[in-house]
């Protein structure tokens, strides 16, 4: 039996609901494929603030560092929205990414044929879409200095965030993106705002220079405003997209809607070595929390990404993805991916259907 240490961070809102479903799925896969998962649950986000005062307690980061992979659900909620920035759940998430040096965030947007009609776009636009967004995750305007709310000379307050990238930060995310594109259709689109921002000019220059090392990849560039428009106009033009932290955050939510719901999108956050963090692209959905309405599939598919990219268990990942496919074929739909005339199932019932499909 191969054994893996996995830290679970259920977090807030719908987090614990979708995590519970996913742990059941992992345990069933484990017993079928003779893998054993040693789950350690730890506090993170609002749940951690309530218990310890900190959104990412030292003990949680330590537990994560000691594990083979980290499975995170979602953090945040109204209750903590008015806390000072350093105490907010979101700050804990940024500290986790920085603490584990997870500079590369892979966010696949793949349209499953069963859900084509759940998209808000026309069938012919979304059918067959298969995009990988490679988002830089530990730099850019999320982390640049100076940052803060300062008193200006005129007595006015001045809010400051700084978009900055160093050569080495651009180089390492660029390499991940080119290598990702090599394993896919071999087309890479780099998204920036080089017509206005110096930081983007450096980004474009360095990504362009990197292309020489990857002659088999066809590189193109788009300004981010145009990229947002192209994503909804004709998403099939994209294979792999590489972009900075903020643009990647925004474009991946837009890409999510191509698939019918943000409740479908998993992600993998990876560093040079050490454990990765695997989490849905969506947040804690406080508007539907505690009502058994959440779509658990982004979380379940994040576990599949964990098995594939973090634990080198592609067979287990394949099985989970196949089971998700089966339940969608069988017509199971949570409210967010329901087409007209369908009856929604809850989060738990969706989980049970996956367990049955696995068995
Ligand atoms: P959100 O992604 O939580 O929700 C946006 C909308 O999508 C809501 O209507 C929600 O009900 C719906 N939705 C999201 N996930 C769903 C699912 N699995 N099934 C069905 N519907 C789903 O974004 P928001 O409302 O802007 O943010 C809520 C909180 O989550 C905030 O505190 C935010 O900071 C936080 N957040 C956390 C993460 C994370 O933990 N990685 C990501 C994004 C937002
Ligand atoms: C995401 C979220 C986070 C981000 C927030 C909650 C810090 O929106 O994972 O996409 O902006 O990266
Ligand atoms: Mn986001």
UniProtKB/TrEMBL annotation:
It holds the Pfam family Iso_dh. Pathway: Amino-acid biosynthesis; L-leucine biosynthesis; L-leucine from 3-methyl-2-oxobutanoate: step 3/4. GO terms for biological process: L-leucine biosynthetic process. The keyword Transport does not apply. Mg(2+) binds at residues 225, 249, 253. One of its GO terms (cellular component) is cytosol. The keyword Secreted does not apply. Binds 1 Mg(2+) or Mn(2+) ion per subunit. NAD(+) binds at residues 77-90, 283-295. Its main location: cytoplasm. Keywords: Amino-acid biosynthesis, Branched-chain amino acid biosynthesis, Cytoplasm, Leucine biosynthesis, Magnesium, Manganese, Metal-binding, NAD, Oxidoreductase. PROSITE patterns: CNMP_BINDING_3 (PS50042), IDH_IMDH (PS00470). Homodimer. This is 3-isopropylmalate dehydrogenase. It comes from Leptolyngbya iicbica LK. The gene is leuB.
